[in-house]
Records
---
Amino acid sequence: MSRLSEKNLVIAKEIIARYPRQKSALIPLLHLAQEQSGYISKDAMVHLGELVGVTSAEVYGTASFYEMFRFEPIGKYLINICGTMSCALMGAEELMHHAEKRLGVKAGGTTQDGMFTLAHAECQAACTEAPCLQVNYRYRLRVTPADIDNLIDDLQTGKLSDEIPAHGVLSKVRQVIPADRAVGAIAPELVTESPVWLNGKAAL
Amino acid sequence: MSTTFKHAPGFVSGDRPKIVTSRFEFADSFTIERYLATDGYKGLRAALTRPASEIHDEVKSATVLGRGGAGFPAGTKWGLTPQQVWPRYLVVNGDESEPGTYKDRLLMERDPHQLIEGCLIACYAAGLSQCFLYIRGEMALAQERVATALNDAYAAGYVGKNILGSKFSVDIVLHWGAGAYVVGEETALIESLEGNRGMPRLKPPFFPAVNGLYGQPTIVNNVETLANLPWLLCNGVAAYTAIGTKTSPGTRMVAVSGHVKRPGVFEIINGITTFRDLIFGEEFCGGIKNDNKLKAFVPGGGSAPWFTADQLDLPFEASQVGPAGSMLGSGAVIVMDETTDIPAAALTLTHFYAHESCGKCTPCREGGTWLERIMRRIVDGDGTDADLQQLLEVGAMICPGDFPHAANEKLGLTAVPFPYKMTTICFVGPSAFAPVHSALTLFRSEFESRVTKRVTIPVTSVSSVKTVATAGVHS
Ligand SMILES: Cc1cc2nc3c(=O)[nH]c(=O)nc-3n(C[C@H](O)[C@H](O)[C@H](O)COP(=O)(O)O)c2cc1C
Ligand code: SF4
Ligand code: FES
């Protein structure tokens, strides 16, 4: 039942129209599906395949390459603790042990109440602020075990619900290209001439 | 004097020229209002009042080096597209995920309009008719900031049809990934942007500038590379090349992490600033944590062979770091002090590259996994002395011949210069071996003290490949 909702279908069509080839929209659309349900269902993949003109197997082929896509429900909050070198040097392992004890699950597991999924992650581009983690891809920097306790408390009591949306939502702002400003995507085979501004003269 | 800002975590400002971080001091640096109040879109306007070819020549003569890893000059790259083949595309590489690297995310979060203006200048100069700005999937805030900036820039007439009322029209499409390090490799980035699994393509024939997105000529540039262009257009080539050296002009963003007193991201003067300045200088990291001794450092992101104190006086200059046995890569220095467990530290990197292998080439897919398993066995105390030889043998299947490493006076080693030979399509395979090779070459005794003597059947009765395979199964 988790084909894209009507509202998301409108967004999906807008996204597809931005690309010279429809299949290019696939990863953004997979994110849209994950935003809608927290994970990507088979029905969603069938729907996305219809939208961009490929089989659902091809959709899964692409989706399964990327670590952020989940094909089964996970916790509302995905806690990714970085364990790559800079964070490892600064105590990432201790953080992971602490989080495992506090949540009562091993890395990769989800708590029984469906609130938290704990995972080991690779370098998050915050290496100077090690050790670090992301909750639903929102950063926590120079994290101590006590910070982990506070974070989990705050997530449990809903204190952070404004800042951190449920798993699946990335950017809270979408790109909108106004129709009167858009150049529009053109299939490459339909373009035969050089851009008009390459005429040896200034454009302005 | 060094200053930090709560709104730009990690960034450390100083009394140095600022090309890409000039607005970081402002808490609202990401808004169009702040951008316009601080010379924003002035470089674009200046560019549009001149023919595109002049702007291309200007970028060429400024020698704006690529900041994504390879250090190839942007202006030269733009010139590699075949004549009269249209359309051409710009793909912006915002997939920052090389271990130790933290700069492109800051540039996208703190000054998205600067990046957008850079994209526009590149498209104008090189005749690129659509731009795709690919941001790493895990960077929700960067996506949010760039989306907002694009929406504002479209509304204000800086992006889209007839920019600033001129003949120049280009769309910038925000695209975002979904977690795969290898997608940062430019041909994998293009595959991913086409909606496929992000596996690198063979070069040749798939050099992006000739045969890239949808088979069309495509320029792939790093976020920081493009962020340099607005300043260059506002201030001119002479001002740009007055900073840094002739071969490495301008500045570059460098993240220093690990065991230093004050880790941070700095915009440093290219070609001049040394590793000693960065690690020990008061305006930079201020020395090693707890005044410990320096053991080793990674000079250019997780893929780079390691340096020790012997190389501290090298500047950020590719023509000196390459012959010394490593690379500047993505501007990431990771510092290890004397307390570091070297095999364990190397294992985190080998695990990373083995984990991120796309699986297309056997030496990377299998070799990376073997390296990781053997390393883990050694770190866990289950290794034997034969494992050390095996690490090198597996490495030689990925990178035949002498692997680059630094000189070391105490060990009597002379440098083997960068680069290496490789049997794989991209650098992920060799990168799994680089930390192993560095650790084993520079700190062999740490491995030897951890492994036990191997009691085993004579090697003559088993082929070397079988030995490795057996080792894998036992781990
Ligand atoms: C495995 C691998 C990962 C890479 N990751 C990135 C990356 O995250 N960001 C980036 O800009 N370049 C990355 N590169 C380099 C790109 O292939 C490409 O050279 C670069 O984006 C070109 O931009 P520049 O010329 O402006 O530096 C990577 C290369 C390899 C082999
Ligand atoms: S080297 Fe590794 S990551 Fe790169 S193409 Fe080959 S298998 Fe894929
Ligand atoms: S190593 Fe953890 S953020 Fe880079």
Note: The mean pLDDT of chain B is 95.
---
Amino acid sequence: MANIKWTTADPKGVLTGAHYLDGNHAACEGALAAGCRFAAGYPITPSTEVVERFASRIPEVGGVFIQMEDEIASSIALQGAVWAGLKAMTVTSGPGFSLMMEHIGLAAMTETPCVFVNVQRGGPSTGTPTLPAQADMMQARWGSHGDYEIIAVSPSSPQECFDFIIDAFNLAEIYRVPVMFMMDECVGHMTEKVIIPEPEKIKVVERRWTDKKPGEYLPFEPDDDLVPNMVKAGDGYRIHVTGLTHDERGYPAATDVTVHNKLVRRLCDKIYKNAHKIWKWEEMDTDGAEIVVMSYGISARVALRGIEMARERGVKVGLLRLIVVWPLPEPRIREIADKVKAIVVPELNVRAQVAREIERVVAGRCPVIPVGHAGAGVHDPNDIYNAIMEALK
Amino acid sequence: MSVTTYRENPVEQFLRTDRMPHIWCPGCGIGTSVNCFARAVLECGIPLDKLAIVSGIGCTGRVAGYLRLDSFHTTHGRAIPFATGLKLANPELSVVVYSGDGDLAAIGGNHLIHAARRNMDIKVICVNNFNYGMTGGQVAPTTHFGRLATTTPYGSPEIPFNLPHLVASCGAVFVARWTTYHVVQLQRSMVKALKKKGFAFIEVLAPCPTLYMRRNRLGSSVDMMKLFKEKSVVKHGIDTKEVAITNYEDPIIVGEFVDTERPTWLDNYNEIMKKRLGDKYVPWGVNNG
Ligand code: SF4
């Protein structure tokens, strides 16, 4: 049996009560509630408030924040902290996220549970530092070289920044995978009421420590859910962890096709085959809908207005809001596609990053209509309304 | 009847013998440095379970994989920031970065200077073989001026780094340089570095007979040992400005150049927090498990 131990939040990190917070501050509180005790970061708009708050809160909670010399350093310092036993995150945006790519691959390869927060802004390059986008969705998924799978979570409000970053940490621990917490500038800087529950109401997953003793333990031998149990440095196991292709002992086997095939397939399969336990989405009025809007993050929120306008004109429109964007809830998307006239996908990127994946899943069952936007703002709800009306024809 | 006593090589307990043979070429200096390191660790008495090794990428980057310790073979140039996270998250660990000149001083140069500036409590052993070995002998930030490498086929137009000066000027509290000829001295400096609190840096000049020496017609590693013996001048405490190695012909200044004290990053962090937050602050890394 997989060694997943659920517990409740350490009260030291939990600021129980009703607060008025923006998404960035709420994400920091969520991370602390989830047990994150180490963060490394580098200043970058529009994400910096997350680590600023962490830097001010962590001394009293017990843990460390360090501002590193760049995002490359931040994105590996956190992995050092994880192997020393802490839960850790780094926080960034656009250019910083690009610099972190190699280390997302390292975390995937070494199965290092950690959270990368990306408060998305418009790009490419320096783009629109102070304005939102959702154009890093594919980069989040496959931006590092090689084959691997990650999990990506996308919140639509400050409350969800708090709630879902806890999910992000839990998923990271369960699947030993880097989890991308994909915010955007709009959600990051929008201020709303955020309720932080009592610590005993916050469910937190502990690290999946092995029960085995040094000598019996193989660091990369998968448990029955395809995920290996973990140890940390200093516990006497004398493990070797490498970004090279490695066998179950953790030893490099960089020219062994069999070992490589087995490892890389497992890194992908532990997400694919457990996807049904990872998916998270929310539906509104999808039963009997003619059109379903599928979206995530800020765009799903903006879409509500477009949906409302269409409903006022008698159109049966539903919403499927992805909370876990990667992996996609493929069976549910197909089920909906079988029943509706069309699926409309608004998102803040022009290349239909998630829409294309939905289209692939739908495989011709119904038209999938992307409603692209280059970012630096959010959709005009009229554009979503128009897309819905167009899709009806 | 004679009694044969079998004496185990003291270094053996450090090695992942199940991973032997190693990948290093005959005559390579990296193994010599590892031998000194293993003996230094034994001598200074650090519990082996509390010692972690972090390497980057390259011939020296493979050291982590051969040592029977908690060992992390990270990405190219990034051993130091990984080690920083490891150390700060569990200050009880002794953390050693073991990597090459290209890894630490070129792609990882930014991390090297910042870790020295912060006086991060990690030990850095930098094996300098004057070129990139793993990838076939390209020019490094340490290649002697005018010498050949695959990417400087007519000679390097660059002045190499003076690594001890680089880290000393950033604030390293212990800086030494030895060659693989100086095994006794190297081991002794490694012991000091391991016991030292703060950022310690040891440059180990090592032969790369397969690539650098062959390409530059410098003979075998025995010839390099001779050169190390003849050209080395021990000057403890000398101003690191004076220790640059620009040409192959110049004397090589070796010794312990810096040995000083100043608070580490974590000392300062705890101090400042205590001052500002008073009793609300529980110093990090002091009995926090
Ligand atoms: S290429 Fe050079 S540095 Fe690398 S193992 Fe061979 S001799 Fe040593």
Note: The mean pLDDT of chain A is 97.
